[in-house]
Design goal:
The protein is 40% helix and 12% strand. It is built from 15 helices and ten strands. It has two domains: 137 residues, Rossmann fold (3-Layer(aba) Sandwich), CATH 3.40.50; 257 residues, no CATH class. By secondary structure, it is α/β, with parallel strands linked by helices. A hairpin with a 7-residue loop joins strand 8 and strand 9.
């Protein structure tokens, strides 16, 4: 196999189902899982190889004969020796460094992944929490929705430019101040440790998108909104003033089975001093959880209005990531939102309930980029809205036609 310079390599496990004649490795394996994994590897990596229980590391073009051998039937010593051989072959054809994506079970990863990591390579196994049937379904969904995925990739590429404009991705929300979040109006994005994109597993996935000042005459500022989500300097906050805090607290309570202890959480638009005092323990936990998140934000300076660019971008980006068929980048098995009682949260993988079932308009990415270019100094800043005229009315017309009800 020829040595080549690559950034990301995908390793796909062999399968028991094979053709009955010699063939190139990329086509001899006939299972739906392998076919779908091959498509992922070809689209999402710079180079890919096959992990064969019999042959070790295979190039897709290597010609092999059918065989019947599995790592699952081998001893730990045999698996360790197999991994050492694959590791040696891998280093012979892939330059040092880079990233390795495993589309393979633990039998293939257990010794090989640590060996690769020990020499400075990053590794990820995006499907490790899924059963075989779910792996096939997810990979096939990624293949079917490759056009949507291209929009998601562009969204994250643009978001990387946003991160370069501020310190959001290098500092936790708890460390932000009015001085660091100096823009009056904008849109913001939250990320959580351990929540990575499955379609780009070395990149954090967005877990919440939000904005503010989307009603006529609103004086709310970007920093005021973020501070409300974060809580005060003493760690206390008010979940009745932040639906984000409400959902996080509700999930913390449910995960710990504390509903009998905190029966007032989320009840009412206001609360007495006595009730708020009884809720302090969860408010503190919510502040810690949200404060540990990283945030990025972009100034979007048009006037306060339901038709503002901020509203347009928020709606479309939530719709893009959530999708009518659900997210392409699934939340991890430990994501706190899995304990939410809100179907919109659990199904979308986002701490959002509004807009998760709406239709995405790709023009929103162009508008996003124009605002980014303004912030970068490559375009003249304007407080005029850039979104297509009448966009909100068209959304309402679609909702009325489909009978869709916006979640509150």
């Amino acid at each position: 196999m020829e040595k080549a310079r690559v950034n990301t390599v995908c390793l796909v496990a062999c399968t028991s189902r094979k053709g009955d004649q010699p063939a190139t490795a990329e086509f001899i394996y006939r299972s739906p899982l392998f076919s779908a994994a091959r498509s992922y590897a070809e689209r999402r990596a710079d180079q890919w190889f096959i992990l064969s229980a019999k042959h070790g590391l295979l190039s897709p073009k290597d010609v092999i004969a059918p065989y019947n051998e599995s790592l699952l039937n081998q001893s730990e010593a045999q698996r360790q020796a197999w991994a050492a051989g694959v590791h040696s072959a891998f280093n012979a054809c892939v330059p040092a460094g880079g990233r390795v994506i495993f589309l393979a079970g633990s039998a293939y990863r257990s010794y090989l992944a640590p060996a690769l990591e020990s020499e400075g390579r990053e590794t990820a196994a995006p499907m490790s929490a899924l059963g075989i049937g779910s792996q096939v379904a997810w990979l096939q969904k990624v293949e079917r929705e490759h056009a949507r995925l291209s929009h998601i990739d562009r969204f994250y590429a643009l978001l990387a430019r946003v991160a370069a404009l501020n310190t959001g991705l290098s500092r936790k929300l708890s460390q932000q101040t009015a001085a660091s979040v100096r823009h009056k109006r904008g849109i913001y994005f939250f990320f959580e440790d351990g929540e990575m994109r499955m379609t780009a597993p070395f990149q954090h996935r967005v877990v919440r998108i939000g904005t503010h000042a989307v009603s006529e005459g609103s004086k709310a500022t970007l920093w005021n909104r973020l501070r409300t989500h974060r809580g005060g300097g003493d760690g206390l906050g008010n979940h009745r003033g932040s639906i984000f805090r409400l959902h996080v607290g509700e999930s913390l309570i449910r995960r710990a089975e504390l509903e009998p202890i905190f029966p007032t959480w989320g009840k009412g638009q206001s609360a007495s001093t006595e009730i708020r005092s009884a809720e302090e323990e969860i408010e503190l936990a919510v502040s810690e959880h949200i404060g540990n998140m990283q945030a990025a934000w972009l100034e979007v300076p048009d006037a306060s209005s339901a038709d503002s660019d901020r509203s347009y971008l928020e709606r479309n980006f939530i719709a893009l990531l959530a999708g009518p068929t659900g997210p392409l980048d699934l939340p991890s098995g430990n994501w706190l939102g899995r304990w939410s009682t809100r179907e919109a949260v659990t199904s979308s993988g986002l701490w959002n309930v509004n807009h998760v079932y709406e239709t995405f308009d790709a023009t929103s990415l162009d508008i996003f980029e124009q605002h980014i270019e303004g912030a970068e100094g490559r375009r003249t800043r304007t407080e005029q809205s850039l979104a297509p005229s009448g966009w909100r009315l068209r959304i309402k017309d679609r909702e009325n036609a489909s009978g869709q009800i916006e979640l509150l």
